[in-house]
Design a protein that fits this description.
Strand content: 25-35%
Structural class: alpha+beta
Radius of gyration: 16 Å
Low-confidence stretches: none
CATH superfamily of the largest domain: Winged helix-like DNA-binding domain superfamily/Winged helix DNA-binding domain
Order of helices and strands: EEHEEHEHHEEH
Distance between the termini: 30 Å
Strand order of the largest sheet: 1-2-3-4
Helix content: 40-55%
Number of strands: 7
CATH topology of the largest domain: Arc Repressor Mutant, subunit A
Number of helices: 5
Number of domains: 2
Shape: elongated
Largest sheet: 4 strands, mixed
């Protein structure tokens, strides 16, 4: 099911038609849709949600991206300064990498007081294995 809410699309994938699901994912990527993919879990107890843009990420990720992403995943939540120290990279380099990961839908952030707390999205774990 595809729902159009203004300019964003919600692509809800459920049921047993795996070939159709793959075709919809490929088509949404090829035509440049912007929005969210929702995949219902097999046990019907929830769903996995990720930005369609994640499908455009070129894998494998560079090693420096993997180490930053792994550090965010391990920490659960972390700020830029902590992340910079943890992976031994300059804060400016971390900022550029994290900005790209946010754009790609791998990382999200929340402003807590004066700092930004980073958190890996569920889909990010797939890209650390490749």
């Amino acid at each position: 099911m595809i729902v159009n809410l203004g300019q964003d699309i919600i692509l809800n994938l459920s049921g047993g038609m795996r070939s159709l699901i793959i075709e919809l994912l490929v088509a949404s990527t090829l035509v440049g849709l912007r929005g969210v993919v929702e995949v219902e879990l097999e046990n019907l107890e929830g769903y996995l949600s990720f930005a369609i843009d994640v499908l455009r990420i070129r894998a494998p990720l560079k090693e420096e991206y993997k180490s930053v992403l792994n550090a965010i995943i391990e920490a659960g939540e972390i700020n830029l300064s902590q992340l910079s120290r943890k992976v031994a990279m300059a804060k400016s380099t971390i900022h550029k990498i994290v900005k790209k990961m946010i754009e790609e839908g791998l990382v999200e952030y929340e402003k807590v007081g004066k700092e930004y707390r980073l958190k890996a999205r569920t889909i990010a774990k797939l890209f650390t294995k490749i």
